[in-house]
Amino acid sequence: MFCPNCGKELSDQAATCPSCGHPMKAGAVNPTNKPVSMKSRLAVVLLCLFLGWIGVHRFYVGKVGTGVLFIFFGWNVLSIWVLVDFIMACVGSFTDKSGALVLNWNTEG
Ligand SMILES: [Zn+2]
To answer: In sequence order, what DSSP letters do the residues of 13-25 get, joined into one string?
Structure first.
């Protein structure tokens, strides 16, 4: 197959064009071109859902500083953050400490 963006010939397995970075598979669309985290999106969603009020999902992705804030404040004033983080994780906009998007539901995949 060929890149629709720059016309370079690609392997059928290529998720993105190595020449211009154009995403080649619908399932691997990453419109922001940010790096993709190795952390599991499923884990972030579940941790956020069940333990988000103490910031466990933020510890999981390495955001220790804000995770500590959640331990002290997550159960009241920052509870909206948990909801925001949960929605971000669901739509694939949650990022880990390095700013990489947590997109992979299964990190083995
Ligand atoms: Zn290209």
So the answer is: T-SB-TTT--B--
